[in-house]
Amino acid sequence: MPTATAMSKGRATGETESFLSATVGKKVVMAATGLILFGFVIGHMLGNLQLYMGAEALNAYALFLRTFLHGGGIWIARTVLLASVVLHIWAMTSLTLVNRRARAVGYRQWKPRESTYASRTMRWSGVFLLAFIIYHLLHFTTGDAHPDFIPGDVYHNVVSGFQVVPVSIVYILATLCLALHLFHGSWSMLQTLGLNHPRYNRLRNVICVGLAALVVVGNLSFPVAVLTGLVR
Protein backbone atom coordinates (compact mmCIF):
# COMPACT_ATOMS: atom_id res chain seq x y z
CA MET A 1 0.00 0.00 0.00
CA PRO A 2 1.24 3.54 -0.71
CA THR A 3 2.49 5.42 2.30
CA ALA A 4 0.96 8.67 3.51
CA THR A 5 4.03 10.56 2.29
CA ALA A 6 3.73 9.08 -1.20
CA MET A 7 0.01 9.87 -1.30
CA SER A 8 0.71 13.43 -0.18
CA LYS A 9 3.35 13.87 -2.88
CA GLY A 10 0.98 12.42 -5.45
CA ARG A 11 -1.77 14.85 -4.50
CA ALA A 12 0.68 17.77 -4.59
CA THR A 13 1.92 16.74 -8.04
CA GLY A 14 -1.64 16.33 -9.29
CA GLU A 15 -2.66 19.72 -7.94
CA THR A 16 0.36 21.35 -9.61
CA GLU A 17 -0.39 19.70 -12.94
CA SER A 18 -4.06 20.69 -12.64
CA PHE A 19 -3.11 24.28 -11.85
CA LEU A 20 -0.69 24.56 -14.78
CA SER A 21 -3.13 22.92 -17.18
CA ALA A 22 -5.85 25.43 -16.30
CA THR A 23 -6.13 28.77 -18.11
CA VAL A 24 -5.86 30.71 -14.85
CA GLY A 25 -2.67 28.80 -13.98
CA LYS A 26 -1.08 29.71 -17.29
CA LYS A 27 -2.08 33.35 -16.77
CA VAL A 28 -0.50 33.35 -13.30
CA VAL A 29 2.73 31.90 -14.74
CA MET A 30 2.60 34.53 -17.47
CA ALA A 31 2.13 37.31 -14.92
CA ALA A 32 4.80 36.06 -12.48
CA THR A 33 7.46 35.57 -15.14
CA GLY A 34 6.47 38.86 -16.76
CA LEU A 35 7.02 40.60 -13.43
CA ILE A 36 10.52 39.11 -13.17
CA LEU A 37 11.39 40.10 -16.73
CA PHE A 38 9.89 43.57 -16.28
CA GLY A 39 12.02 44.07 -13.16
CA PHE A 40 15.11 43.01 -15.08
CA VAL A 41 14.36 45.44 -17.92
CA ILE A 42 14.00 48.33 -15.47
CA GLY A 43 17.18 47.39 -13.58
CA HIS A 44 19.12 46.84 -16.78
CA MET A 45 18.11 50.23 -18.10
CA LEU A 46 18.95 52.03 -14.84
CA GLY A 47 22.37 50.35 -14.70
CA ASN A 48 23.14 51.31 -18.28
CA LEU A 49 22.46 54.97 -17.48
CA GLN A 50 26.00 54.99 -16.13
CA LEU A 51 27.00 55.36 -19.77
CA TYR A 52 26.55 59.10 -19.16
CA MET A 53 29.03 58.99 -16.30
CA GLY A 54 31.85 57.90 -18.59
CA ALA A 55 33.88 54.83 -19.42
CA GLU A 56 35.28 54.26 -15.94
CA ALA A 57 31.87 54.20 -14.26
CA LEU A 58 30.19 51.94 -16.82
CA ASN A 59 33.10 49.50 -16.98
CA ALA A 60 33.29 49.36 -13.17
CA TYR A 61 29.57 48.58 -13.06
CA ALA A 62 30.01 45.79 -15.62
CA LEU A 63 32.96 44.40 -13.63
CA PHE A 64 30.85 44.37 -10.46
CA LEU A 65 28.14 42.36 -12.24
CA ARG A 66 30.68 39.82 -13.50
CA THR A 67 32.41 39.39 -10.13
CA PHE A 68 29.44 39.60 -7.74
CA LEU A 69 29.37 36.54 -5.44
CA HIS A 70 32.71 35.49 -6.91
CA GLY A 71 31.18 35.37 -10.38
CA GLY A 72 28.20 33.28 -9.29
CA GLY A 73 25.75 36.16 -9.09
CA ILE A 74 25.54 36.73 -12.81
CA TRP A 75 24.95 33.02 -13.47
CA ILE A 76 22.18 32.92 -10.87
CA ALA A 77 20.56 35.89 -12.57
CA ARG A 78 20.96 34.33 -16.02
CA THR A 79 19.43 31.05 -14.82
CA VAL A 80 16.41 32.83 -13.34
CA LEU A 81 15.97 34.95 -16.47
CA LEU A 82 16.31 31.97 -18.80
CA ALA A 83 13.76 29.98 -16.81
CA SER A 84 11.43 32.99 -16.80
CA VAL A 85 11.73 33.42 -20.57
CA VAL A 86 11.06 29.73 -21.21
CA LEU A 87 8.02 29.66 -18.89
CA HIS A 88 6.77 32.96 -20.31
CA ILE A 89 6.93 31.61 -23.87
CA TRP A 90 5.29 28.34 -22.79
CA ALA A 91 2.41 30.16 -21.09
CA MET A 92 1.93 32.52 -24.03
CA THR A 93 1.93 29.65 -26.55
CA SER A 94 -0.45 27.56 -24.44
CA LEU A 95 -2.91 30.43 -24.01
CA THR A 96 -2.76 31.18 -27.75
CA LEU A 97 -3.63 27.57 -28.57
CA VAL A 98 -6.45 27.57 -26.02
CA ASN A 99 -7.92 30.72 -27.56
CA ARG A 100 -7.72 29.26 -31.06
CA ARG A 101 -9.42 26.03 -29.99
CA ALA A 102 -12.16 28.01 -28.27
CA ARG A 103 -12.99 29.71 -31.58
CA ALA A 104 -12.41 27.18 -34.34
CA VAL A 105 -14.35 29.34 -36.82
CA GLY A 106 -13.07 32.87 -37.20
CA TYR A 107 -15.15 36.03 -37.39
CA ARG A 108 -16.67 36.85 -40.78
CA GLN A 109 -16.00 40.52 -40.13
CA TRP A 110 -13.92 41.50 -37.11
CA LYS A 111 -13.55 45.00 -35.71
CA PRO A 112 -11.57 45.66 -32.53
CA ARG A 113 -13.59 47.32 -29.79
CA GLU A 114 -12.06 46.73 -26.38
CA SER A 115 -8.62 45.57 -27.51
CA THR A 116 -5.70 47.92 -28.10
CA TYR A 117 -3.00 47.85 -30.75
CA ALA A 118 -0.55 46.72 -28.07
CA SER A 119 -2.73 43.74 -27.12
CA ARG A 120 -3.37 42.74 -30.74
CA THR A 121 0.35 42.72 -31.53
CA MET A 122 1.44 41.12 -28.24
CA ARG A 123 2.41 37.75 -29.72
CA TRP A 124 4.26 39.23 -32.69
CA SER A 125 6.12 41.73 -30.51
CA GLY A 126 7.12 38.82 -28.29
CA VAL A 127 8.59 36.90 -31.24
CA PHE A 128 10.47 39.97 -32.44
CA LEU A 129 11.82 40.67 -28.95
CA LEU A 130 13.03 37.08 -28.61
CA ALA A 131 14.98 37.42 -31.86
CA PHE A 132 16.32 40.78 -30.70
CA ILE A 133 17.46 39.37 -27.34
CA ILE A 134 19.50 36.72 -29.16
CA TYR A 135 21.07 39.40 -31.34
CA HIS A 136 21.67 41.66 -28.33
CA LEU A 137 23.56 38.88 -26.53
CA LEU A 138 25.67 38.18 -29.60
CA HIS A 139 26.31 41.88 -30.00
CA PHE A 140 27.16 43.16 -26.53
CA THR A 141 27.74 40.01 -24.41
CA THR A 142 29.71 37.56 -26.55
CA GLY A 143 30.80 40.03 -29.24
CA ASP A 144 30.14 37.58 -32.08
CA ALA A 145 27.95 40.15 -33.86
CA HIS A 146 30.18 43.13 -32.97
CA PRO A 147 32.96 43.92 -35.48
CA ASP A 148 34.98 45.99 -32.95
CA PHE A 149 34.33 44.13 -29.70
CA ILE A 150 36.83 44.52 -26.84
CA PRO A 151 36.21 42.11 -23.91
CA GLY A 152 35.73 44.01 -20.66
CA ASP A 153 35.50 47.46 -22.28
CA VAL A 154 31.73 47.86 -22.20
CA TYR A 155 31.84 51.61 -22.80
CA HIS A 156 33.82 51.19 -26.01
CA ASN A 157 31.57 48.36 -27.19
CA VAL A 158 28.40 50.39 -26.61
CA VAL A 159 29.67 53.55 -28.28
CA SER A 160 31.29 51.85 -31.26
CA GLY A 161 28.27 49.57 -31.62
CA PHE A 162 25.73 52.39 -31.74
CA GLN A 163 27.87 54.42 -34.13
CA VAL A 164 26.73 51.95 -36.79
CA VAL A 165 23.45 53.52 -37.93
CA PRO A 166 21.63 50.29 -38.96
CA VAL A 167 22.46 48.79 -35.56
CA SER A 168 21.04 51.82 -33.76
CA ILE A 169 17.90 51.62 -35.88
CA VAL A 170 17.41 47.98 -34.87
CA TYR A 171 17.76 48.93 -31.18
CA ILE A 172 15.34 51.84 -31.58
CA LEU A 173 12.73 49.61 -33.24
CA ALA A 174 13.22 46.97 -30.55
CA THR A 175 12.72 49.59 -27.83
CA LEU A 176 9.47 50.79 -29.39
CA CYS A 177 8.32 47.19 -29.71
CA LEU A 178 9.28 46.59 -26.08
CA ALA A 179 7.19 49.59 -25.04
CA LEU A 180 4.04 48.08 -26.55
CA HIS A 181 4.82 44.71 -25.00
CA LEU A 182 5.50 46.20 -21.57
CA PHE A 183 2.38 48.35 -21.59
CA HIS A 184 -0.07 45.56 -22.34
CA GLY A 185 1.96 43.03 -20.37
CA SER A 186 1.92 45.14 -17.21
CA TRP A 187 -1.79 45.89 -17.70
CA SER A 188 -2.62 42.19 -18.04
CA MET A 189 -0.29 41.26 -15.18
CA LEU A 190 -2.04 43.62 -12.76
CA GLN A 191 -5.40 42.30 -13.94
CA THR A 192 -4.33 38.69 -13.38
CA LEU A 193 -3.07 39.55 -9.90
CA GLY A 194 -6.51 40.91 -9.04
CA LEU A 195 -5.78 44.65 -9.34
CA ASN A 196 -8.75 45.24 -11.63
CA HIS A 197 -11.57 47.60 -10.68
CA PRO A 198 -13.34 50.37 -12.64
CA ARG A 199 -12.46 52.82 -9.90
CA TYR A 200 -8.73 52.14 -10.24
CA ASN A 201 -8.36 51.24 -13.93
CA ARG A 202 -7.46 54.81 -14.90
CA LEU A 203 -4.68 54.82 -12.30
CA ARG A 204 -3.57 51.40 -13.52
CA ASN A 205 -3.41 52.77 -17.05
CA VAL A 206 -1.30 55.73 -15.92
CA ILE A 207 1.11 53.40 -14.07
CA CYS A 208 1.49 51.07 -17.07
CA VAL A 209 2.01 53.95 -19.50
CA GLY A 210 4.48 55.61 -17.13
CA LEU A 211 6.60 52.47 -16.68
CA ALA A 212 6.64 51.78 -20.42
CA ALA A 213 7.56 55.41 -21.12
CA LEU A 214 10.38 55.25 -18.56
CA VAL A 215 11.91 52.25 -20.31
CA VAL A 216 11.44 53.78 -23.77
CA VAL A 217 13.03 57.12 -22.89
CA GLY A 218 15.93 55.50 -21.07
CA ASN A 219 16.76 52.87 -23.70
CA LEU A 220 16.17 55.17 -26.67
CA SER A 221 18.55 57.70 -25.19
CA PHE A 222 21.57 55.38 -25.57
CA PRO A 223 21.69 55.03 -29.38
CA VAL A 224 20.43 58.60 -29.84
CA ALA A 225 23.15 59.99 -27.53
CA VAL A 226 25.85 58.16 -29.50
CA LEU A 227 24.48 59.10 -32.93
CA THR A 228 24.19 62.78 -31.96
CA GLY A 229 27.69 62.86 -30.45
CA LEU A 230 26.50 63.49 -26.91
CA VAL A 231 28.38 60.34 -25.87
CA ARG A 232 31.73 59.73 -27.58
In short:
By secondary structure, the protein is mainly alpha-helical. Helices cover 76% and strands 0% of the residues.
Largest sheet: none
- The portion of residues forming beta strands comes to under 5%
Measured distance between first and last alpha carbons: 73 Å
Rounded to the nearest angstrom, the radius of gyration is 21 Å
Mean pLDDT reading: 84
Total domain units: 1
DSSP helical segment count: 9
Task: Give the proportion of residues in helices.
Answer: over 70%
Structural class: mainly alpha
The count of β-strands is 0
Tell me, what's the shape? globular
Spans where pLDDT lies below 50 across 5 or more residues: none
Order of helices and strands: HHHHHHHHH
Q: Could you characterize what this model shows?
A:
The chain has helices at residues 4-21, 23-48, 55-67, 72-102, 117-120, 122-141, 154-162, 165-192, 201-227. With 232 residues, the protein is an all-alpha fold. It has one domain (25-105, 116-227). The protein starts with a helix and ends in a 5-residue tail after the last helix.
Question: Which structural traits does this protein have?
Answer:
mainly alpha; about 75% helix; single chain; about 230 residues; globular
Would you spell out the secondary-structure blueprint of this structure?
Layout: H1 4-21, H2 23-48, H3 55-67, H4 72-102, H5 117-120, H6 122-141, H7 154-162, H8 165-192, H9 201-227
